[in-house]
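Incident log, support desk, overnight shift.

02:14 A customer reports that sequence design results differ from what the structure should imply. Their input is reproduced verbatim below. On-call engineer (initials T.W.) acknowledged and began investigating.
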């Protein structure tokens, strides 16, 4: 008898038109829509689960599923991470224009570097999508 992993995607207006791709053990197993959930049958054992959207991905979550068990995971777009990346992008763009038109100054170079660093750190840390166990069910991976 198999176990089951349920991925629930919390409803959000950020990224609402794009489905999250779901990967279990590095295999694409399906997609989940905004505000929806999907069930995936798995063999009992330890599995690595991750969701992704438009080039961004959650951190990989390692879960243990026993025979007949259902593990529920919640996923969502992290609004503030997206907002900060958007602001950093605007900062980079505006400072890039200033660097071209006025010549580099210490202030514009520093602001430009801060904007670039913010985007790189956010993308590298995969902070745009979260994936976590459903605390209401008390599951701890």
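02:41 Re-run completed on a clean worker. Output:
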């Amino acid at each position: 008898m198999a176990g089951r992993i349920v991925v629930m995607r919390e409803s959000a207006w950020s990224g609402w038109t794009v489905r999250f791709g779901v990967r279990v053990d590095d295999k694409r197993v399906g997609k989940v829509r905004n505000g929806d959930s999907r069930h995936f049958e798995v063999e009992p054992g330890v599995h690595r689960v991750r969701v992704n959207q438009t080039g961004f991905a959650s951190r990989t979550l390692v879960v243990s599923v026993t025979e007949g068990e259902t593990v529920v995971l919640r996923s969502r777009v992290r609004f503030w991470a997206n907002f900060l990346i958007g602001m950093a992008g605007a900062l980079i763009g505006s400072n890039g224009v200033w660097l071209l038109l006025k010549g580099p100054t210490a202030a514009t170079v520093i602001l430009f570097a801060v904007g670039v660093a913010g985007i790189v750190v956010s993308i590298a840390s995969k902070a745009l999508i979260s994936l976590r166990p459903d605390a209401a069910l008390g599951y701890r991976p």
